[in-house]
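Supplementary Methods, section 5.1.

A reviewer requested that the exact input to the structure prediction be made available. We therefore reproduce it here, unchanged from the version used in the analyses.
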Amino acid sequence: MKINTVSLTLFISSSLLTTNLIAEENLADDFFSDLPVITSASRLNQSVLSSPSAVTVIDSAMIQASGFIEIADIFRLVPGFQVAHADGNTFAVINHGDGWEYPNRMQLLIDGRSTYTSALSAIDWNTLGIQIEDIDRIEVVRGPAASAYGANSFAGAINVITKAPELDDKWHVGARYGNEGERRLLLRHSGEYKDLNYRFSAATRDNDGFDNYLDSRDLHDVSLTGRYSHDARNSFFSHFSATSGDAGMPPIDPGNPTSFYNRKRDTNAISAHVRWDHIISDSQEVKLNFYHNFRDEDDMVQSYPLWQLLDLPNPASVPGFLGEPNQTVEAGERTYKSHRSDLELQYNEILDSGLQYVVGFGGRYDSMESEAFFPDKGTVSNTSFRAFSNVQIPLGNKFTANAGGFYEVNRTDEPHFSPRLSLTWHIKETQSLRVGYSKAYRIPSLLEENLDLTVYTETGFPLDAVFKGDAGIEAERVKAFDIGYVGKMQNFPLSWELRAYKEEYDNVIDFYNDEDPGVTDLSGDLTRLGNVTQSQMYGFEGSIMFRPEENSFIRFHFNRGHETGTYIKEINEAPPKPSTDVESLHSAAPRKSYGFLAAKAVDTWQFNLGLYHVGTMEWFDRGDKVDSYTRLDASVIKRVPLTGKNELIFKLGGQNIGNEKYSEFIQDDERELEFDPRYYLSVTYLNF
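The structure derived from this sequence is encoded token-by-token as follows.
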């Protein structure tokens, strides 16, 4: 790796020296000396000192200093998380490994709206309905969070809190240009009308993806957020967003890239969200939350004539039962329409004794229409109901207990209850030690239960049975135990969060090959979905931060973990049949990862530096085993005050600078996607 470590050390040392001097003058700054109050761990307002789970908090100043331009990349700042660009328009974000291009064990909430899609069984980071500038802070629950948010929070939960419109800039106009075809235009406006505060934004986002790979992106976003204060006890939050555009797609068959042409995916995504907040008294509050998500994607394409698709010498070589030799075959991987509607009621109360609790009920309806995924059914749906509760109990001055549970039932699976217990010892006023245990389930999605992706000829003959789900598939299970140590220095702006953990996964759903599936097609094999993996993960992770000022800080995070386990890779490969090929998990999670982020503000300048390392790990499905990598990011920000409350901001950023290309997700020579050094320049006009 070609990074100038001398320059890096000088930068860090000078930052430490300068920020030490500043710290002596700013110890009274409560905002940066106090540990944050969070809501994501249990739906209760809690200091991180009393949280039942490990939580990482990332604020807007850290996001700006990181230089990241994709929201998914922000999670490189989270201990134990791995982020990969599966291609130019697909991002994978996972916790402790075991991931593929559509990770399905993480919940992502934006102001209380789930973005988890029943169609992909995952998060689509391109259609979140917000811009990175909208984010006020992010709370990341590391580890099972199903006791608070249900089945999709199997490996963790991400809660994105956006800026209140009344606290945002009045006008924000920005443009960004970079290599690899990176282009973005952004318009944001915040204002008020009587008791209504609102924010409108519109953006266009383009890039060319990786070199020599069909993965470009051309997307257009619009969103409107409003907060209406009816009176002192009632307020209403609303958000509407729409994203449309298209993305390039790699060949369906990498070995025969000319088999299908003009690969492109059209995307339309719409979200609507309404929440009523009612304050009953100083200690009681009710929230009623409703959202609806709609997605429409189409990537169906025509093949070359059948005789060319089958690599035959001439049309006469096509067997008669397949039909016309010059027919074309239509195929796709992401063509569907999906709807999700969710309604939830939540009640919070704090008693005079200091005990606080939350109870809630909710229901959800999912439907998905796809002739490509479900040729026999066309449309599949599911209705689920849930009840949950979490409680925080003070046990004298030194201890706090947390308990919670989430009960979930739906039409397609048996009921599941996900509990969590923790006990916290407050060693000092600013330090605590936590012991916690949780058990969680991930209920199979509509796609995993009903998937039947088969390519047919015009005569109805199955040309290729590609993927098949399992109606009898069972819920995944995890048991997790951790010990956490959280604290800060009382007279010095240094804070930390450390955690030792052990996680046991069972019944994990994944793909496996069936060499003799009992279906008649020309390929003779099939990729199935099933409960094929069990694993154990244990390790130590955390973060340490020195922060005397909002925009001047040094932060280090790390994870050291080890995974063991087995998975079924293939069945019916050789006689006697049925036979099963069971393999060991060696590197599905990196043994070591760490990151460093430093920022230094000097007058109207800000200098930022990030260093990230991920050890060797293996991605499943389309991914490969990729080598370890270390990348260096840097950015410089210059603010130019104008007349009145106006300002210009120039930002020059670089990612993986001074380094060779590296692979994040795919390392096979024929499909190699390497992350080049990337640079961009952005110009922003603000009126505040």
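The chain has one domain: 5-299+334-687. These observations are discussed further in the main text.
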